[in-house]
TrEMBL record:
One of its GO terms (molecular function) is L-glutamate gamma-semialdehyde dehydrogenase activity. Signal peptide: none annotated. GO terms for cellular component: mitochondrial matrix. It is an enzyme of class 1 (oxidoreductase). GO terms for biological process: L-proline catabolic process to L-glutamate. This is Multifunctional fusion protein.
Length: 572
């Protein structure tokens, strides 16, 4: 081959290389790392991870009260009005002070997000995913102990509850949401005809997504914002007033990971003020919510009014996971010691403040004495303490004054109820922090208020049923629970009984567990969500909930011209 020919070929390769590189950045196939769950250090006394966490707790203590901010337009924003969040364990001390966004600031945040929308949705998924994968590494590395410390002090969690939430679950959401979005994008038409092909273009929603996160899980805020953002949406994020500081750390981690500033806006303040601006905006396109059923009903109504008045560009997508009245049902064949341990964890870890917490238990008469005796002994051994002052404590304080007063009212009323027998607890103390002792009642009827009203605290109700009424009890479990259907569990070794329960309770829980507590979902392994009064059941921790934040466009292309308009049946 001549030298001139070689030079010509080399020149041709050079001339097309920029095009190939440009297209490669946007369209070349790639493979995400295999999904995995973040392993949990054990934080035993004397361990390195425990020492680092203790240092982070001590450092945070010296900084109290920490300042939180509104973030939009690439920088922190101040406000003339602010709010103090007290330490749940020491309500005389302020944990954080944060600004209350005005209507004008909320509007500015929305407009700044909308201005960033086109550039973000044009950013290739590979680049969006890289940001959240890096954020996961920052969560589990550089910021792990800072996040856990903020969650322990600000939300009253012990070490283990802080670790599985603010470190492991948050990282799991960031990593696995990338895989879930890839799963969505990979779903393409597989059938076709000669001379044509079809494909799906997964577009972000037209407008912005509004994410409202709760106090009880730092990780949930990361999930509510990351899924829609990975799909190319811009997001206005309003964290719970009782989880502002830890949430602000997540926001700053995302910026450090490379997220453009206006893709996600961090707005704190009065929910009524922020909601009024959001739900009156034409570009409101979706709600991603976790909180109480009553709050969700109110939000749903406001959105419905906007739809009825033709306020929005498109019908808003609504995803919500809300309240629960979650059950443990024991069959006579149950392993009682195991069921007791699962029940104590399910009812009292994090003071019963998980939406999936166990709050009603049905026990067969033949196993009642064994179960109740072991339950009382176990609950009496639960330790309670300040999250950073007593690192071995199993329980801490409830989140705030309103929660304490609600639980106190339920306990005071039930202590006087002749149809309810106090087995253990029934006391509380708010002299220093918002502490409620783990409380168990045995009630005569499965229709008792304790079996139907969400308390969101460390109060458990037990009903003993005759062994002969197993089938009738299945109906009671299904019909009870205040109309909620979030989580539930059956404990049995008899496979026939397990099958009967699984079938009879098919609509009683969105997450149904066999020989396992109701608080057992792990991201990527057990997707989470309930129906009835417990939400839209779109299943967080899976691709299902993320699909709600994309608007697919089907594209069909024919390769050859149409040479006539008549069909064969039109010819004589």
């Amino acid at each position: 081959m001549s030298t001139s020919t070689l030079m010509s070929m080399r020149s041709a390769r050079l001339s097309i290389r920029p095009l190939l590189q440009t297209r490669g950045k946007a369209t070349a196939p790639f493979r995400l790392p295999d999904p995995r769950n973040e392993p949990n250090p054990l934080y035993k006394r004397g361990s390195e991870e425990r020492a680092k966490l203790e240092q982070a707790l001590s450092k945070l203590r010296t900084q109290l009260p920490v300042q939180s901010n509104i973030y939009y337009d690439g920088k922190a924003q101040s406000s003339t009005q602010t709010w103090d969040q007290p330490l749940p364990a020491e309500h005389g001390s302020i944990f954080t002070n944060y600004p209350l966004a005005t209507k004008e600031q909320t509007s500015e945040a929305i407009e700044a997000a909308l201005q960033a929308k086109q550039a973000w949705q044009d950013t290739p998924f590979v680049d969006r995913a890289a940001i959240f994968l890096k954020a996961a590494e920052l969560v589990t590395g550089k910021y792990r102990h800072e996040l856990i410390a903020a969650t322990m002090l600000g939300q009253g969690k012990n070490i283990w509850q802080g670790e599985i939430d603010a470190a492991a679950e948050l990282a799991d959401f960031f990593r696995l949401n990338c895989n879930f979005v890839a799963e969505i994008l990979e779903k393409q038409p597989t059938r076709g005809s000669d001379g044509m092909w079809s494909r799906l273009d997964y577009r972000p929603l037209e407008g912005f997504v509004y994410a409202i996160s709760p106090f009880n899980f730092t990780a949930i805020g990361g999930n509510l914002i990351s899924g829609p953002a990975l799909l190319g949406n811009v997001v206005l994020w309003k964290p719970s007033p009782s989880n502002v500081y830890a949430s602000s750390i997540i926001y700053k981690i995302l910026l450090e990971a490379g997220l453009p500033p206006n893709v996600i806006q961090f707005v704190t303040g009065d929910p009524q003020v922020i909601n009024a601006v959001v739900f009156s905006h034409r570009e409101f396109a979706g709600l991603n919510f976790i909180g109480s059923s009553d709050v969700f009903r109110s939000l749903y109504g406001q959105i419905g009014e906007g739809v009825a008045n033709k306020r929005y560009r498109e019908f808003p997508r609504i995803v919500a996971e809300t309240s629960g009245k979650n059950f443990h049902l024991l069959h006579p064949s149950a392993d009682v010691p195991s069921a007791v341990n699962h029940t104590i964890r399910g009812a009292f870890e994090y003071q019963g403040q998980k939406c999936s917490a166990t709050s009603r238990v049905y026990v067969p008469e033949s196993r009642a004495e064994e179960f109740l005796s072991a339950l009382k002994a176990g609950v009496n051994n639960i330790t309670i303490g300040n999250p950073d002052g007593d690192l071995e404590a199993f329980m801490g304080p409830v989140i705030h004054r309103a929660s304490f007063e609600k639980i106190k009212s339920v306990i005071d009323k039930t202590n006087k109820d002749p149809s309810a027998k106090l087995l253990v607890g029934g006391t509380y103390d708010d002299s220093v922090g918002f502490y409620v002792n783990p409380t168990v009642y045995q009630v005569d009827s499965p229709d008792h208020a304790l079996f139907n009203e969400e308390i969101f605290g460390p109060v458990l109700a037990v009903h003993v049923y005759p062994d002969s009424e197993w089938s009738a009890t299945l109906k009671k479990v299904d019909q009870g629970g205040g109309g909620f259907a979030l989580t539930g569990a059956v404990f049995a070794s008899d496979r026939v009984a397990i099958r009967e329960a699984e079938d009879a309770l098919r609509y009683s829980a969105g997450n149904f567990y066999i020989n396992c507590k109701t608080t057992a979902a792990l991201i990527g392994q057990q997707s989470f969500g309930g129906a009835r009064a417990s939400g839209t059941n779109d299943k967080a921790g899976s691709a299902d909930s993320l699909r709600r934040f994309t608007s697919p466009r089907l594209i069909k292309e024919e390769f050859f011209p149409q040479d006539g308009f008549l069909y064969p049946s039109n010819h004589q």
